[in-house]
Design goal:
This protein is an alpha/beta fold. It has 12 helices and 9 strands. The strands form 2 sheets. The protein has a 7-stranded mixed beta sheet with strand order 1-9-8-2-5-3-4, sandwiched between helices. Helix 10 packs across helix 11. It is globular, with a radius of gyration of 20 Å.
Length: about 300
C-alpha cells in the first residue's frame, strides 16, 4: 500500500471518528440536547422531508397534531444520528444507556446450530441494535445498501462495522448468502419495512413492504423474531418483542403474504405507541407523486 493511500485512509478514519469521540465525552443529557438541536436544524434544511413527514402523520394519526409530531420525529432522528456517531465508543458512551431483553433466544438457536432472523424496522434506533452480537455473543449479519456518495458510504460502513456486525451488500446472489448464514446456525438481521415488495396495508393504506424476511423463514425453516430498539427517555431498550409465526396458507405465496401482514400489524401497534420514533420522512403512500389536486384530498381515517 502506497504512503498516499495510507495517508488518505488515516484521514478518513480521523474524519469518521473525531465527531463521535468528542460527543461521546459529553454527559447523556447533553448528547440528547445536541440531537434535538440537529433535528430542528434538519427541519430547516430539508423542507420537502418536513412536508412529507407532516403529511404522513396527517394520514396515520388524523386525531393528533401533525406539526408537533413532525418536530418530535426530527428531534428523535437527530438523537439517532448523535448515537450512531458514538458507536465506535460504545463502551465509554452508550453502554450504560442501552439494555437488552430477550436476546437469549438467539443464543439458544446458535447453540443448536439453528439459524434465526432478527426482524426489525426503521424504528427507534436500529443502528445501535448491531451491538447485540457482542452483548449476546452471537454472530449477526446485516444488509447494507451501497451509497452513491463514496464518502457517505465509507462513513456508514465503518461506523456499523465497528460494532462487529457482519455486513453484506445488497446485490445479486444475496439469497444464497442469507441462506448459507442461516444454515450455519447464525442470525440474520433484516429490516422488514419500506422497500420493494408487495402492496400491503399500513395504517389503512397500501404501501410497499418487503416479503424477503417471510420468504427466507419459510425457505430455510427458521424462526422470525420481531425485535426493536425503543427510546425511553435517556435509555435505549433493545427488546425481542415476540416471535412472528409462519402463517398457514393454500400455497407459499399466501403464507408469505399472511406472515408479512402479521408483522405489519405488530409494527403498527408499536408505532401507535411511539409515533415519533418511526421513519416518516419517506413518501410511504406516494402522496407526493400524485397530481396536486389528488394529494390535497382529505386523508382517510387510520381505520378506513
Amino acid at each position: 500500500m502506497s504512503s498516499r493511500i495510507r495517508l488518505m485512509n488515516g484521514l478518513k478514519k480521523l474524519l469518521f471518528l473525531t465527531p463521535g469521540r468528542v460527543i461521546s465525552l459529553l454527559p447523556r443529557s447533553f448528547q440528547l440536547a445536541l440531537g434535538r438541536i440537529l433535528g430542528r436544524l434538519a427541519m430547516r434544511l430539508t423542507p420537502k422531508r418536513v412536508k412529507i413527514t407532516r403529511r404522513n402523520f396527517e394520514i396515520a394519526f388524523p386525531e393528533k397534531d401533525a406539526t408537533v409530531l413532525t418536530r418530535k420525529c426530527f428531534e428523535h432522528f437527530g438523537c439517532l444520528l448523535v448515537e450512531t456517531l458514538c458507536l465506535p465508543f460504545f463502551g465509554s458512551s452508550l453502554k450504560k444507556w442501552l439494555t437488552f431483553e430477550g436476546m437469549e433466544v438467539f443464543q439458544e438457536h446458535q447453540a443448536k446450530g439453528e439459524g434465526s432472523i432478527l426482524l426489525t424496522a426503521h424504528f427507534g434506533n436500529w443502528e445501535t441494535m448491531s451491538w447485540c452480537n457482542r452483548h449476546a455473543n452471537i454472530i449477526v449479519y446485516g444488509l447494507y445498501q451501497k451509497q452513491n456518495n463514496t464518502l457517505a458510504n465509507d462513513w456508514f460502513y465503518e461506523l456499523r462495522r465497528w460494532t462487529g456486525l457482519r455486513l453484506i451488500e445488497k446485490k445479486s446472489g444475496l439469497k444464497k448468502v442469507i441462506g448459507d448464514a442461516l444454515v450455519r446456525g447464525e442470525t440474520f438481521g433484516l429490516v422488514g419495512d419500506q422497500g420493494r415488495g408487495q402492496y400491503l396495508e399500513f395504517f389503512g393504506r397500501e404501501t410497499n413492504f418487503p416479503v424477503g424476511p417471510a420468504w427466507n423463514a419459510i425457505e430455510h425453516n427458521c424462526r422470525l423474531y420481531f425485535t426493536l430498539c425503543i427510546r425511553e427517555g435517556k435509555y435505549l431498550r433493545m427488546k425481542m418483542l415476540e416471535e412472528i409465526p409462519i402463517q398457514e396458507g393454500d400455497d407459499r405465496e399466501e403464507q408469505i403474504r399472511k406472515t408479512t401482514e402479521l408483522y405489519i400489524q405488530k409494527l403498527e401497534e408499536v408505532v401507535r405507541k411511539y409515533p415519533e420514533q418511526y421513519f416518516w420522512m419517506h413518501d410511504l403512500w406516494k402522496e407526493f407523486k400524485k397530481k396536486p389536486s389528488e394529494s390535497s384530498s382529505p386523508a382517510p381515517s387510520a381505520g378506513s
